[in-house]
Design goal:
alpha/beta, five-stranded mixed sheet, 373 residues, 13 helices, six-stranded mixed sheet, 12% strand
């Protein structure tokens, strides 16, 4: 009798467990299965399309890494077009207006997307299929966009970088605690600046100074006989040779080979005036009516996945907002914004979104055009 009761109890426990599992599978599985079924169908259709065309920032390592990893993963050709963001956006826009649809996806800086491709883009989140991409919890700050509508320019990178580098034979770090220290007469003709009228890190730094220090400070800084150049390599070489003591607005890409060679240059420790975040080359846009719509979805989901962001970050050296991707470990590497500020501070200090382009960056550029002769 006791044995019979135990048997009935065991059967009841097994029944309850099975019932609970059945309920869970009924409640949860359809959504997951539907997502995976949709993903499989899209990947299959993408393979029939054969390729996806993406424009990206210049860089041999970025080009090779993206192509190798993506094509190995999906057996879909990744045709990459490289160049500066403004030039690529103009090329895509000219083709679009001529009725041509040759490019599927564009990645790069925010301004070319906001201004150069306005009215020619599809909402990015419509492309999202994979849960690890769709769910905002995987991203520091959730889903972020550079355009006012928060639909067309997805921002996937967020970092800070060393804006000032110095020649260790000519400068002692303790001489410079704040930007005001750059106005000392000893730095006359010894400071190189990446032309802020041109774009890039030079413009980002100038905008930060315009916002935090004011135009009068920038006027005094220019009067230090700044060596202002659009090409950054000569400025970096001048710093290494000692022709310049400091450079402003040049990032690690200009110095990495010199650092590895042990030459006398270093980034200046953070000044008390603070630091500003950027999205760098980390904005993504999908061209309206892309020629390879399914391959476009595959690429967007892969690029914003953990593997895609690891690949992009490693190749370009700019940190992702994905929380499950390890931060760069290289010396003097640019560093994730999340290590230096809160999300609220990020939104307050950035100058790359459309709102800040209009209210901060454009007036700062106008000041540069007035002050720099």
């Amino acid at each position: 009798m006791q044995e019979g009761n135990v048997t009935r109890q065991q059967k009841f426990v097994v029944f309850v467990r099975a019932f609970v599992l059945l309920i869970i599978s009924v409640v949860l599985s359809p959504g997951v299965e539907a997502q995976m079924s949709q993903w499989d169908q899209v990947v299959s259709a993408a393979k029939k399309e054969g390729k996806v065309v993406v424009s990206i920032p210049p860089g041999a390592e970025l080009r090779k890494s993206l192509k190798d990893v993506f094509e190995k993963r999906f057996a879909i050709e990744l045709e990459l077009v490289t160049g500066r963001g403004a030039a690529l956006a103009k090329k895509i826009a000219d083709e679009f207006r001529a009725g041509l649809r040759l490019t599927d996806v564009h990645t790069g800086g925010s301004a070319p997307i906001i201004y150069g491709l306005a009215g020619m883009l599809e909402p990015v989140e419509v492309q999202f299929i994979l849960p690890e991409v769709k769910e905002a919890k995987h991203w520091w700050g959730g889903h972020m966009y550079v355009d006012n509508t928060k639909r067309y320019g997805y921002s996937f990178l967020a970092f800070v970088q060393d804006a000032l580098w110095y020649n260790t034979d000519l400068v002692k770090p303790e001489e410079l605690h704040a930007y005001d220290d750059l106005l000392h007469s000893k730095w006359q003709g010894k400071i190189g600046y990446s032309d802020p009228r041109r774009g890039g890190a030079g413009q980002g730094n100038w905008t930060f100074l315009w916002k935090t220090k004011g135009e009068e400070f920038l006027k005094k800084l220019v009067q230090q006989n700044l060596v202002i150049m659009g090409e950054e390599r000569p400025l970096a070489e001048a710093l290494v040779k000692g022709s310049l003591a400091l450079t402003i607005g040049l990032d690690i890409d200009n110095f990495v080979s010199f650092v590895r060679a042990g030459l006398p240059i270093k980034p200046l420790p953070q000044l008390k005036d603070g630091i500003y975040p950027v999205t760098g080359s980390g904005a993504l846009a999908v061209i309206k009516n892309p020629p390879h719509p399914n391959a476009t979805k595959v690429f967007v989901n892969w690029l914003l996945s953990k593997e895609g962001q690891e690949t992009y970050q490693s190749a370009i050296g700019e940190p992702t907002r994905r929380l499950d991707v390890d931060v760069p470990k290289e010396p003097y590497a640019v560093r994730p914004a999340r290590e230096f500020m809160t999300v609220e501070q990020y939104h307050r200090l950035e100058s790359h979104t459309e709102e800040k382009q209009e209210s901060v960056r454009k007036p700062a550029i106008a000041a540069a055009q007035r002050l720099i002769k």
